[in-house]
Structure formats: structure tokens, C-alpha cells
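Question:
Write out your own:
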Amino acid sequence: MLQLQSDLAQFKALNSQRASIIPPDSLRAPRAHEPQRVAKDEIVIVPKLTKIECDMVGLKLTFDQVLKRYEAENINPWPILESHERQLEARQEVSGLLHPSQIVWRGELRPEQIRGAKAVIALGGDNHLQWVARWMVDGYMIGVNSDPARSEGALTRFQAADLPQLLERLAAGEFLIADWTRLEGEIDGKPIDLALGEYFIGETERAFMSRHVIKVAGLSEEQKCSGLLVTTGAGSTGWYNSASRYLHAGGDPFSRTERLARFLVTEPYQGKLASSELLEGSFDAGEELVIHSLNDSRGIVTADSNSRYTFGRGSVARIRISEDALKVVSS
């Protein structure tokens, strides 16, 4: 027990030291590449659907029927309608710059369409960019916020009005690329989707307690909690940032280009007979985080809240920093 406490103290000290030497993005030059020129016909646009369009598809309703549904559910339709109009305007502005064949709708997207493009424009918000990014191996990601008035767009660098000038700079090779760290994982030896933001490990139902054994840097601990988050710098301003407030009052964001991952135990059980000590930590490229599932109900692992995998009792997940960073057009 004394040895475990000593190892844990050393691990916490190491993570504290790591945090103190990691400067914010504004003070660090991005990991740069010599950019390759990108012609207009080498670009694919993937627009997101608006909320109204999603509801029309998901509920199989017409536009007017969706609005009546909102009224029946006591939902104020005006902010949704205004956002719908702004997103349609952004879509029209961006789509008018390229040939219609270069527009690939999210519901019709095939991975080879993304992998065959030299650059991909994700027109939407942060979650949409993450969804598109999971298909990307090569090529440049361009994040365009389709509704800056309503979407914070922490990961989307550009707006629709920026695209004409950006396309000229892409064609001339006059732009910068930043390597955003991604995570890779496997469950019982089978690979799962890359995560640009985070992996979540826990139970499907929030009402059920998640149980697992976590192993990292020679330490091992059985934990009871609401789940485990493993994040990159790109994910550290989202879910992880909110969940970490019980340990860090101002959140705990870090650089998207840092070759580092952090993990966080959410809502840990702290009782008289059992409690968690390994509430947070980090690991570098070449290191591995291992989670053994003890879930009694329906355990899952999710990648960026897009892909979902069964993680039942006895399963083992392994998470590492991927060698395939996402190449993001940063300016």
C-alpha cells in the first residue's frame, strides 16, 4: 500500500510537471508542413444538415409538419428557423465556389470520397468536423463554421466569407498546416475508429455505475464512477473541459498539437471503504492506457460521441496516441 501511494505521488508529480511546461496554442508554433498546392477540383465539401433538416429526415415529416411538432412540444421555433436560414446561406455561399459534384452530403458519404480528396471542407460545427475527420487519413481538413451566431465553433477556423480568398491561397500553396493529435484504440484486439476529441468509456445508461480497472504508467486501480474520458488537446475544450471542473475550477484545456493525451474519472465514487486516487493523468506518444471492463450492464466505448462499441464485462480496451495526426489548415 505504501509503495502504491509512493508510485501514485510520483505519477501525479510527473503529470503536474508536464502540465506546467505545456504552453497554450497562442504561444506555440504549430507543427508545420511544407504545404502542397490544392486545386479547386481536388476539394470536397461535406455540409451538415440543419436541425430542421435532421428532424425532417429522422421523423419523416415535411417542413411544416416539423414546425407544428415544435409547437406541440412547446419548443420556440424562431432561433431554430433563424439558424436554419443562416446555415442555408453559408451552404449556398460555399457550394457556389465549387462544382456540384464536389458536394457530398453527410448521409451519402462514402469513406473513399474523403480519402481521395486532397482537402475536405467540413461545413458545420465542431461535432460535424469530428464526424468527418474519422474518415480522413491523408488530405487537409478545413473547418468552416456554418452558423457563427449560434455555434461557438472551437474547432472551426473559418467562416463562409473566408473561402474565396482561402481557395486562392490553397491553389498557390500559401497556407499553414497544424498537426492535431488523434487517439487510436482497440477493444479485445479489434481496432476502433480514431478519436479527434475523446474516447468515453462507461455505461450506456447514465443511471448505472461504471466499473473498470485502469492501468497506466505501471499503476493500476479499480474504479467506480460515471465513466472515463480520454482526451486530446482538440477535445480538451469540450466535454472534458466541463467534466474536469471538480478538479480544475477554470477547466483544463491544452494544445491541439501536443503529442499528449489526458484521462479523467468523471463523478468518482468516494466512500469510506473504497475510493479512487487516480482521478486524472496523462500519457505520451508510445505509452498506453489500458482499461479492463467490470461493467455489469451495457458497457460502451464511444469515439467522439459518433461511433459506439460494446464494452462488456471482461473486455479490455487499449488507447494510444495515433501516428495519423489530422492535418488541419490553420491559416
Q: What stands out?
A: Residues 20-30 have pLDDT under 50 and may be disordered. The CA atoms of residues 105 and 287 lie 37 Å apart. Residues 40-175 form a domain with the Rossmann fold fold (CATH 3.40.50). DSSP finds eight helices and 18 strands in the chain.
